[in-house]
Each structure stands twice: as C-alpha cells, then as structure tokens.
C-alpha cells in the first residue's frame, strides 16, 4: 500500500513540475517579453497599432527599468554609441506608442529622474556639453546631447 501512495505522490509531483511550475516561473517575465515582441514588430514594420501601444502602456515600468539598465551597462562598458542609439530607440518606441495611446506620456513621470541620471552619465562619458529632454506636440518626448564645436 505504501508503494502505491509513493507512486501517486511522484505522479502528482511530476504533473506539478511539468504543468504548473513553468507557468509560475515564467509569469513574471511574460509581460516584458510582450513589449519586446512589440518593439521588434515596430522596428521591422515601422508601424504602431493600438494593441502594441496597450502592451507598452501595461508594462511601461518594467520595460523602461530594463532598458535603462541595459543603457547603463553599455555606458559602463564604454559602448557609448550603442548606449546613445539605445536611448534614441527607447524614446522613439515610446513616442510611437504615445501617438496611438497618449496616456503613455503621462506614465513617464515616474521615470524622468532616472532618465536624467542615465543621460547625464552618458553625456559626461561622451564629452558632451550637456543634454536635453524635451516634450513637444504632436505628442512626443525627445532626448539630445550637445557637443562643443572642435
């Protein structure tokens, strides 16, 4: 009888490991991957749709945090051109989403200080005189670095 109970327990444990555990482990990573799929689609098609904008809006915090972290890593590795292009890519993607769903711009308020810190670090390492973050109409945010004339 004990052997049968042990066997049933092993079957139950196997079912948990195969079906339930992967869903709980991957659940926290899923939203960000949706944003990256939208980013990839936008980059290859050049078009943003409302569904993609909603994915950005729903996952904006995690996405910006990850992207700014990647940009910081590039700055630390002295891959400054890549860091600047990645920052431009991030703002362009957010602007494309905001053109379809303007509430995205309002959600950036929590990230302005972090963006300033990253841009400041990038500007210093690149030898820029300064940087700018500007908002304009139609809805959009832009970042820029200014350099001295040599």
Describe this structure in words.
The chain is mostly helical and 150 residues long. The chain has one domain. It contains six helices and two strands, in the order ααααααββ. A two-stranded antiparallel sheet has the order 1-2. The longest helix is centred in the middle third of the chain and has 27 residues. The radius of gyration is 22 Å and the shape is globular. About 13% of the residues have low confidence.
- Number of continuous helical runs: 6
- How many domains, in number, for the residues? 1
Shape: globular
- Content of β-strand: 5-15%
Written as H for each helix and E for each strand, in order along the chain, the element string is: HHHHHHEE
Helix- and strand-based class?
A: mainly alpha
Q: Over all CA atoms, what is the radius of gyration?
A: 22 Å
Strand order of the largest sheet: 1-2
List the helices and strands and how they pair.
Elements: H1 2-27, H2 30-45, H3 50-76, H4 80-100, H5 103-106, H6 112-126, E1 130-136, E2 140-146
Helix pairs in contact: 2-3, 3-4, 3-6, 4-6
């Amino acid at each position: 009888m004990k052997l049968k109970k042990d066997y049933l327990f092993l079957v139950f444990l196997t079912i948990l490991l195969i079906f339930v555990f992967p869903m709980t482990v991957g659940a926290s990573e899923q939203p960000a991957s949706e944003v990256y799929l939208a980013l990839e689609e936008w980059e290859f098609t050049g078009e943003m749709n409302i569904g993609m904008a909603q994915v950005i809006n729903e996952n904006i915090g995690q996405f910006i945090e990850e992207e700014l972290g990647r940009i910081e890593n590039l700055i630390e590795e002295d891959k400054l051109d890549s860091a600047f292009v990645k920052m431009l890519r991030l703002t362009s993607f957010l602007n494309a989403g905001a053109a379809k769903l303007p509430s995205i711009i309002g959600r950036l308020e929590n990230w302005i200080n972090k963006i300033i810190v990253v841009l400041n670090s990038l500007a210093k390492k690149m030898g820029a005189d300064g940087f700018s973050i500007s908002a304009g109409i139609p809805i959009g945010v832009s970042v820029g670095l200014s350099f001295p004339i040599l």
